[in-house]
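Fold this: DUF1640 domain-containing protein
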Amino acid sequence: MSYLFPRAALQPRQVLRFSSVSPLHSPFVTPRRSFRTTPIRNDYHFDTHKFVKRLEEQGLSRPQAEGIMSAMSEVIDESIRAMTQNMVSKAEQEKQHYTQKVDFAQLKSEMQLMEKNDLAGMKAENDRLMADVEKLKQRLREEITRTQAGVRLDLNLEKGRIRDETGLQELKIREVDTRIESEIAGLRTAIETAKQNTLQYLVTVATGCAALLMAYLRFRM
């Protein structure tokens, strides 16, 4: 017995002819003109003699029963042929299944190869990116070192400038202090001179007054 399976899941292949099951050629079947374009097959898929006898038992005549049997045989044959057009045998299904397994194995191998190639490419790209990152880090360190050196130089220059300005300010302050001390010394000298002049004037005035007083007193006596 042939095993038939739906053809929709498989690739188009040659349809396996459906074998007849227990064909019974009735001696009572007479050749009739076919009303279909499909030629009448000589194999039947049911007991034609038993079917004709049953129709005769239902009250039909022999020609009528044979005509009905012939029409039903054609309809059944057409239905079976239409059904078998969309079916394949188990051998074809197994062959297709084996082909699919081979294709799947090949696809799996190709996918694994593509995955390996992608991983290799990703690893190479990752290594390249890591190298670029290291270069950027090195460049950043160099820039930071250069910037720090520049800042240190600027700070040292600024410190030197501030130190020079501080020295100049100290010199100016010392000059001002010296000038102030000189002026204070001159002022003290002037004050001492004024004191001496005042004392001399006072002594002179006092001596004069005393002389006048003594002269007045002597004149009164």
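Residues 89-195 form one domain. Residues 90-220 form the longest helix (131 residues).
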